[in-house]
Amino acid sequence: MLATFVALNASRFEAPKLATDAGQCEAYVAANGGFLGPYMTDGIGEMVEVEDA
Amino acid sequence: MNGMASAADEALANVSSALRAKGMWANTLLIHTPDNGGPAGQLSSGHSGNNWPLRGGKTNLFEGGVRVAAFVGGGFVPAAVRGTTLEGYVHACDWYHTFINLAGGDPTDNHAAEGLPPTDSYDMWPYLSGRNESSPRTQMMLSSEPGFASKGALPKDPNWNGALIVGEYKLILGRQTYGFWQAPIYPNATTNHSAEEPFDCGVVGCLFDIVADPSEYTDVASTQPAKYPPS
């Protein structure tokens, strides 16, 4: 089983890391009132105040 | 944890009710699956989960961390198998092949030329729908370890770990975040929190018969030479 584990583990795909840019992220947060991600359309992330039933 | 479970239950009720109201339930296949077992230790979300009688929990590779209860529902499920229970292996990655096949696509991976292995996902629909009596999956890689080089060198990170299931046996390697057993009500007044320490299976590994011993009480690595380590 150990040999099988080692063989399967060797097939692990190491995805290349994307470069990060803290400045770009902070600029997005400042411009959009938080980070919702570019895939979120306007309005989905709006906070809605809910009263207790 | 109880609150989250109640919230998830209510959300599923809302979704299924909406699908029924829209006349879509008959063609719906609803799948609910956790990503891991409950967090059992004090340092793992403060005992907010309970995996008893299984050992361990979230963040480690004992059954409490990786053996989860999932279910399928919806009108797409054949009536003959509704309300039944299956005990065969299904890996989370099997939903890939299953979904694509149900949608009429081709799940074959075509990136081998870029150095990627073929997928090891299985179509589980014949098993889930009752057409086949057994799961096609007999082997499961539960966790891989980047420090394991292709030639099998052991990783330098002291926290490395991995696990593999083959048939009824599960091999666990390396350091687990914890490996204690909870109780039906946990923690209680007599709980010994000192048992919640990391458990190290090391490079030798722990071997469990998870069919006969699903709670992983007995490490059979030294008594099953035919199974381990046939390297």
Topology:
The complex is a heterodimer of chains A (53) and B (231).
Chain A: H1 2-9, H2 22-32
Chain B: H1 2-21, E1 30-32, H2 63-66, E2 71-73, H3 94-102, H4 125-128, E3 139-143, E4 161-166, E5 169-176, E6 199-200, E7 206-209
Antiparallel strand pairs in B: 1-2, 3-4, 4-5, 5-6, 5-7
Describe it.
The complex is a heterodimer of chains A (53) and B (231). With 53 residues, chain A is mainly α. Helix content of chain A is 36%, strand content 0%. Chain B is an alpha+beta fold. Helix content of chain B is 16%, strand content 13%. In chain B, a hairpin with a 2-residue loop joins strand 4 (161-166) and strand 5 (169-176). The longest helix of chain B is centred in the first third of the chain and has 20 residues, at 2-21. The chains are: A mainly alpha (53), B alpha+beta (231). Chain A binds chain B through residues 1-6, 8-14, and chain B through 116-117, 139, 141, 144-146, 148-152, 162, 164, 166, 169, 171, 173, 205, 207, 227-231.
Give short descriptive properties of this protein.
heterodimer, A: 53 residues, mainly alpha, 2 helices, 0% strand, rod-shaped, B: 231 residues, alpha+beta, five-stranded antiparallel sheet, two-stranded antiparallel ribbon, 7 strands, 13% strand
Briefly characterize the structure.
The complex is a heterodimer of chains A (53) and B (231). By secondary structure, chain A is an all-alpha fold.
Which shape of chain A, going by the Cα principal axes?
A: rod-shaped
Instruction: Count up the helices of chain A.
Output: 2
State mean pLDDT of chain B (0 to 100 scale): 88
> What is the CA-atom radius of gyration of chain A, in angstroms?
21 Å
Sheet with the most strands of chain A? none
**What is the share of helical residues of chain B?**
10-25%
Number of strands of chain B: 7
